Amino acid sequence: MAKGRESKPHIGIFGRRNNGKSSLINALAQQDIAIVSDVPGTTTDPVRKSMEIPGIGPAILVDTAGIDDIGELGAKRVGRTLSALKTVDLAVLVIANNIFDEAEEKLIKAFEKQEVPFLVLHNKSDQNSLSPALQSRITEKYKVNVLSFCALQPDNIEELIVALRQSMPETAYRAKTLLGDLLSYGDLVVLITPIDNEAPEGRLILPQVQAIRDIIDNDCVAVVVKEKEVDALMRVLQPRPALVVTDSQVFLRADASVPADIPLTSFSIMLARHKGDFENYLRGTPKISELIDGDRVLLLESCTHHVACDDIGRVKIPRWMSSYTGKKLEYDVVAGLGELPRPIEDYALLVQCGGCMITRKQLINRLKPAVEAGVPVTNYGMAIAWMHGIYHRAVAPFTGHNENADDYL
To answer: Which of 2, 307, 366, 396 is most buried, judging by how many CB atoms fall within 10 Å of its CB?
Structure first.
């Protein structure tokens, strides 16, 4: 499963083999996009399908292997099915033939452990109608919707879509503003966007595009400039900017060019507040100064990309951190949402990218093991600002403080 490449809300379809999970996806999509067979176990690994759901918008359906798969290979498939819970915002538990016992109860415990809201769908109701007693038992015990459905004759598809919309957390598809709460009508925002060897050919990177759209949506004005032209722009720009947002890699230059009375932050810190564990980032960032010889630092990139010779995560941050601390540090870099190379407890610090390509749920779950283990966490932009001595200015737009990190909590 190619995880971590979509920031759309994810809906996971779970249940036993041959309960019609793939047929359900075809019914929702109104086309044959998932392989359907009477042979149990046709779906072997989580598979993602993109579609539009009324009231939710673009979403990703995750078709998973049966939770009752057998054998050594089957156990691995079940493991991957459960791992998919780390990436989904809503789960649909598909049952059939009024069978609901230990397997389903264990799966619901997994939903609850990952704090994933869910609903229950009794499929193949044309063959065996949903038992009112079972419906009542599930509803009373778990306080969830239980729908009767037939994926091959989806006469009540609208009822299912309504249930999905009601069960999906609004935060999964109605994102809070990136910058709007800092701005007033007509404000001018300057975006500093270097065009270097890491910039994609002929376009801006996603956080820059997202910032422009958010500024426009909030009835403000966006001015985009390369770092080399900031000084000239600041001499003539009227009105004065209400905010400047820079690429973290040119923080020092931006700090020198932007007058101290104009709020300054970075795209990465903007994302850290928007979808990251911002409070734990604020706690964890100062721990950079406490690193000692031999400490191991984990850098997490939530997407995969071509690695440039001066890559921010693999080259620049390790170089800056080693220089700032003066310590001999070890670094691991993990791209995407894959497994870590060693136990989380082996790390003295975790540094997470902005996460523009993944959902907030995926990012929070990525950080959760470190937070629970007491490993300090920070964010690319916040770490860079700390090491360059401009941390307090960089986070102040989102905290309202200019003192030390403890005052932000």
So the answer is: 366
Residue 94: is its pLDDT beyond 90?
yes
Q: Which two tokens stand for residue 30?
A: 């109104």
Q: Does domain 10-172 have CATH number 3.40.50.300?
A: yes
Q: How many residues are there in the chain?
A: 409
DSSP character for 43?
-
Kindly write down the DSSP assignment for every residue of 255-314, as one continuous string.
HHHS-TTS-EEEHHHHHHHHHS-HHHHHHHGGGGGG--TT-EEEEEESS--PPPTT-III
Residue with tokens 């063959």: 127
With H, G, I as helix, E, B as strand and everything else as coil, classify residue 24: helix
**Chain centroid to CA 266: how far?**
19
DSSP state at residue 85: G
What is the amino acid identity at position 13?
A: I
Query: In this structure, what are the phi and psi dihedrals at residue 347, rounded to the nearest 5 degrees?
Result: -100, 145
pTM, whole model, 2 decimals?
A: 0.67
Q: What is the mean pLDDT of residues 348-363?
A: 89
Are residues 182 and 397 in contact, defined by beta-carbon separation less than 8 angstroms? yes
The phi-psi region of residue 36 (left if phi > 0; otherwise alpha if psi is between -120 and 50; otherwise beta) is beta
Tell me phi and psi for residue 302, to 5 degrees.
-85, 5
Give the mean model confidence (pLDDT) for residues 215-240: 94
Distance CA 23, CA 92 (A): 13
> Topology of domain 277-408, per CATH?
Rossmann fold (3.40.50)
Computed on alpha carbons and rounded to an integer, the radius of gyration of the chain in Å comes to 24
Is it true that 10-172 and 277-408 share their CATH fold? yes
Identity at 217, one-letter amino acid code: D
Question: Measured in whole angstroms, how far is the alpha carbon of residue 85 from the centre of its chain?
Answer: 13
- Give the DSSP letter of residue 232: H
Interval 253-309: pLDDT, tens: 999 999 999 999 999 999 999 888 999 999 999 999 999 999 999 999 977 554 455
